[in-house]
């Protein structure tokens, strides 16, 4: 059995977008990096309710290791674990969270003291389903990344992930990925293989807690091999020109928000900038605002057809 379906979501509303102080974890501790706002937590619950209805349902989950992304998928994990059959018997499954730095935030080409995800053991102290056994694929360079390097990072991470899942002993057919706005765009392009000449085009829609669905075209053999990630030399993956990673994928659902009470919110696209000036605060660095253009209202008619025939 090989991977057939990928669901892609972006984290919900951040606390600093609504000027909320960081909300404490149920343990009373303050999260290690920017958490969701109260509204973002509501979005995560609505996403979880929707994911119980989709077909196929995810049977494995990968997430950026930033707190707000894990927080976004945690309600879905709880919902799957609490599922019951027609007789009311609990029949759910416990799904671990695979924290993958290669799906992490993009801070541009010049970064110094920008936030880093907390260590895995710290994250597991907040989220018991966070896997300590998972070996990450790629950690972004602390020196920063250009827009092109972000796309190459996404492509390599996905190629290795798909290869891992194709050979996984449990044979997962469907994966849920949670990430950030810029990485969402790069992941979508790497899957479909379409890299636009104009990097600022709104070819995909990373709404907060929205859901995109990608279906595999062909089961291509991946040549991507995991590396030790010690010299920051990212291996190249051949994905452009419509090829896509892992045989290529069609985007059959782009940024669905019909299940969210607030609908399409806080969209994003690249501005073309690769650096921004900011003062780092504990929970306030917002690379998306500094490096991209926030779009409040969607215009799906501007999107492109990402199928093989498009």
Automatic annotation (TrEMBL):
CDD domains noted in UniProt: HP_PGM_like (cd07067)
InterPro entries: His_Pase_superF_clade-1, His_PPase_superfam, Phosphatase_SH3-domain
Stored PANTHER family: TRANSCRIPTION FACTOR TAU 55 KDA SUBUNIT, UBIQUITIN-ASSOCIATED AND SH3 DOMAIN-CONTAINING BA-RELATED
Protein name: Phosphoglycerate mutase-like protein
Organism: Venustampulla echinocandica
């Amino acid at each position: 059995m090989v991977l057939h379906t990928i669901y892609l979501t972006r984290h919900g509303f951040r606390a600093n977008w609504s000027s909320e102080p960081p909300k404490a974890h149920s343990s009373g501790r303050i999260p290690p990096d920017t958490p969701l706002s109260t509204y973002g937590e509501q979005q995560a619950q609505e996403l979880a309710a929707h994911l119980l209805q989709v077909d196929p349902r995810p049977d494995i989950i990968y997430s950026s290791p930033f707190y707000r992304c894990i927080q976004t998928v945690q309600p879905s994990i709880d919902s799957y674990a609490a599922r019951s059959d027609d007789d009311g018997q609990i029949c759910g499954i416990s799904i671990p969270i695979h924290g993958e730095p290669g799906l992490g935030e993009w801070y541009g080409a010049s970064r110094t003291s920008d936030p880093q995800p907390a260590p895995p053991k710290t994250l597991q102290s907040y989220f018991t389903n966070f896997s300590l056994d998972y070996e990450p694929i790629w950690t972004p360079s602390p020196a920063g990344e250009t827009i092109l390097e972000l796309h190459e990072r996404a492509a390599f991470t996905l190629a290795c992930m798909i290869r891992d899942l194709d050979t996984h002993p449990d044979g997962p057919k469907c994966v849920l990925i949670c990430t950030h706005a810029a990485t969402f765009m790069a992941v979508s392009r790497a899957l479909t293989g379409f890299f636009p000449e104009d990097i600022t085009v709104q070819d995909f829609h990373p709404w907060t807690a929205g859901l995109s669905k990608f279906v595999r075209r062909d089961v291509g053999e991946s040549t991507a091999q995991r590396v030790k990630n010690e010299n920051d030399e990212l291996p190249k993956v051949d994905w452009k020109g419509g090829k896509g990673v892992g045989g290529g994928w069609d985007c059959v659902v782009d940024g669905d928000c019909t299940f969210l009470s607030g609908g399409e919110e806080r969209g994003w696209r690249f501005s073309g900038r690769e650096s921004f000036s900011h003062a780092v605060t504990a929970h306030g660095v917002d690379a998306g605002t500094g490096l991209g253009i926030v779009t409040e209202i969607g215009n799906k008619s501007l999107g492109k057809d990402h199928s093989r025939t498009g």
